[in-house]
Amino acid sequence: MKRLLPAVLLVLFASLGNEADAAIRAKDLASFHGVRTNPISGVGLVVGLNRTGDSRRNEASIRALSNRMRGMGVNMQLDDIQARNVALVMVSTTISAHHRSGSVLDVNVASAGDATSLEGGLLLPTLLVGLDGNVYAVAQGPLVVGGFQVGGGGSSTRKNTPTSARLVGGAHVEREVNSNLDYNAMQTVEYILKDPDFTTAVRLAEAIDAVFDGGKIAEVVDSATLELTLPDELRGKFPSFAMKVEGAKVEVDTKARVVINERTGTVVMGADVQVSAVAVAHGGLSIEVQRSMGVSQPPPLSGGSTAVVSQTSVSASEEEGQLRMVEGVSIGELVAALNNMGVKPRDLIVILQAIRAAGALHAEIVAL
Question: Which domain holds residue 61?
Answer without folding.
Answer: 38-173
